[in-house]
Amino acid sequence: MSTPAVTNLAVDDVFYFLSAHRSLKAAGIHSRLRLPASHPGFQAAAAQALARARADGIEQPVLMGAIPFDMDEPSELFIPSCHAFFDRAERLDAAARRAAAVGQAIAARSVPDEPAFKSAVGQAVSRLRQGELRKAVLSRVYEVDFAAPLAAERVFDALCAQNPGGYQFQLPLAEGGHLVGVSPELLLRRHGASVHTFPLAGSARRQADAAADQAAADALLRSAKDHYEHSLVIDDIRNLLAPHCAELSIPDAPSLLSTRAMWHLGTTIAGRLADPAMTALRLACLLHPTPAICGFPTAAARELIREIEPFQRGVFSGMVGWCDEEGDGEWAVTIRCATVDGSRARLFAGAGIVEASTPESEWAETQAKLATMLGAFGLSGQEAA
């Protein structure tokens, strides 16, 4: 059985995961893998799904999609009917040419709202001071209703045009709609024996004035609070990856990463696997969720999130990407994203809470992080208040 060329398919039928390393476009759904990633048989099921796809005539099949924040929830993974790796510059160029207004927003709301979110931050800080936790990540969802159904492809075009860096994705969800986003954070990439991860923790909002923007970056580099938050993430990743690596290189201090809306502290971590049987999917599931999107210790932070957050995160702050039969693949952290279904979009943002956090500053951080997706929908940050 031969598979159709992706280039012959209509634009709305194509799904994407774009990166500077390797970009993937795909079409059609040969099969889905809904088994939760926490299930003991998940890794075997992923390998079996790829083997079945090859037996059905799909050449060099890939498994792509998303795994939720809570790995006990069903996965959002699928094997496309056809796919191709390509230079993402051509897709970014097409997005820049096509980018247009997404639609007219008619209603919006934050869950939780500002008072409730600030109260949750206060609760988290109290728990931190009791010594139960060292960090917890709290988030909110921003729901926007539009006058007419949204086209995920149009949102993706706007997102790519405004944010050509990072990891852009547009993927179908099993119960309808699409996941669209541009993540700045690499959870894990494996190519042969080489593994890389680029965790982010510690953030500051970009400023329109060049001098003020540089001052914000310099302040982030000096911030004891943000360096402490970042160190929790790096230490956890080191402890998880080191047993599986013959070599592991971690810089002594983080560097700055800039996006359109934010400055971040990031650390480039590179390693060489000791066991080639450790696939990209297995390693990504080992790391997920990192303290950057959950907290530390992980179990206690997850429990606090379940207790305080008034919604289920679903795919937000999970992992998104792809893997193949050889064990290679690339997974990004599912942040700076939205789900689009009919005339409703749900945008997400979170903030890392440590003992030095204040409710006002953490609310402001979520406002700043929402700016990326708000821009793709043609909305300003003022609407998210």
TrEMBL record:
Identification of the protein by name: isochorismate synthase
Pfam families noted in UniProt: Chorismate_bind
Transmembrane segments: none
Reaction(s) this enzyme catalyzes, per UniProt: chorismate = isochorismate
Keyword rRNA processing: no
Enzyme nomenclature, EC number: 5.4.4.2
Gene3D superfamilies according to UniProt: Anthranilate synthase
Gene Ontology molecular functions: isochorismate synthase activity
